[in-house]
């Protein structure tokens, strides 16, 4: 499901998230945007290439509206109690050290006010901010640390009350103050399009990574301590002497639209390390650093020091890009206070040594739990998941009591790791191991779950150890290595690194080549879905193979006379009409009259087909007085096409009227959706005695309707489609709103809390096809292209033995008696139907999705060329 929301607001800046369904950090296709005032005055516009948009130069306390293809959202800048211009307090680019002038300027900021630094490069020693203020670095402004540390202030380990102010590797220690230091700075904002340069490459900071000089450790670039409700947005923060951004004992922190950059060989220059913090949001941040990109800490236990320990919990990391670095997201090894409830989603990990890394050792104590990584792609990460309880850090890290595999007594110093979940994680170019886990024999790792995870191996990989512990053998191309660890699930092979579009076309080609008639050769709608998908592929690509498949398959069902295999018009089965659309297309492209003659067999059935009292075709003779949503796709689009061929406007009008009447009959006001079926006679046990509606909303039934509406809209003129237009728009908006966070739609579409409910792929394919077409036809304002990419990722999986397959397809569902059971239309019934793979009811719509994507891409290219 696409996401559109305001991430952060300061007096003069806003950051927004505008993420299509399958987007991670960057957008494959730029997304246009317009920012307006609430009155509609244009403020700014452009094209997003990342999912997070940062806008500055706004007015305080004003309402704004962001308009994108994903929708419109409103945001309000925070009020400002007073603006202080740094230049007016003596800050100037020519000053060798602007620290004193900046200190005066900070002191002049009223509560709720802003200090603005304009474009230019300003050298400075460390500055200490205060509570309830905004530091605003405009685009082009750079606050750069001086290189001489002679007069650099030190931040003590504790304040006068004994409260810890900062740590070094998890223990309280004095450090040189950070360039930006904030202690007790509640309601603080650091924002703007400018840069904070920590000066790590100036002076000698990187030459003594593990030492103490002049009684202090190396400084951070931004250090926050005991500060709640802090926002950091828009900035580039780089060139840090050690950790770049280090919040300690803070709550309600927000980081968005940042770039955090350090040279790859700079020591201990982690990107963002929340330590003993609660409720931290990190969204849309790009990291490229010399150590870990994000390292979540909770202090380190010492024999006589534990008062500094506190947990880190409720950390949300999303839409970030982690590049190079030792680890993308790391927990520990300083975790003695406990780390709990970390969610990492929609991120890219690129060429980091490890992806998700959890590290600890005996003596730490504490617990790591509730870590979830999902919908994330890794590229060239040697070990995507590394969990190590024998991490050989610290001077005693290689001692026998730490590294022995003999169970030790369990005490408060025994660390525990549990409840780690990876879902829909892909990793290309793995060299060592997909997952490497090493727990303690006395406290094994518990509850590691892998779901829908897949990888490819780097062909030129060399063996190496995946974990920093003694006694770990080198590995190459291992899938999962685990000792003293409980792991459920597997890591599957991804298809070889070929062009995904080419692979998908190969899948469709093989599917059509191997297709066997669904009902033993009898004319049926299931085959018709495959024919319709092949038709659209032929229209989109012009490749003869798709037409050849249709002719081969359809010709086998067309007899002399003409006749259709297994077809009995007296069944009055509306399902049998669908495949007639293929006959119309074959007549159009070949000119052979036998195809139109066969189509007219179906037309004669419709001329005599029984109808409800309101004039809508019965679903089948054996389902009297019943209108099913399925039938609206099976019959009316064919009737309109045949009417156009025969130049019979009455057939076209009748078809549209039937659909309009059926929508009136089936609409459920309470849900804004349409019932699977309506019994006009109110006789069926599954029908509501007042409305005639069936019970629960089955997604594929609504999928049939959605496809019918867009196909009818394309076949007809705007005036002809007018009776259906408003209801179509409302339905497409409702469908889009019901998309799940995983990108698909539920089997019982409107009940996400229903036990056993699941994301079903055939309905999802129908919805994506309909939304793709609807966006082009002006019936829906959203962007369906990301939905299509997400669908393909989720629905098409590597097949055991090679190739691809479409998974998680509901085999069949209906209403009334069928095969010795009664289908009552309840939610529980729909969930009871079995799942299958590669069913035409899924693959046909999936072909339609890809064909529509190709057609729309060609039209966009043609439009650009025309401009």
TrEMBL record:
InterPro entries: 6-hairpin_glycosidase_sf, 6hp_glycosidase-like_sf, GH28_Enzymes, Glyco_hydro_28, Glyco_hydro_88, PbH1, Pectin_lyas_fold, Pectin_lyase_fold/virulence. One of its GO terms (molecular function) is polygalacturonase activity. One of its GO terms (biological process) is carbohydrate metabolic process. Transmembrane segments: none annotated. It comes from the Bacteria. Keywords: Glycosidase, Hydrolase. Belongs to the glycosyl hydrolase 28 family. This is Polygalacturonase.
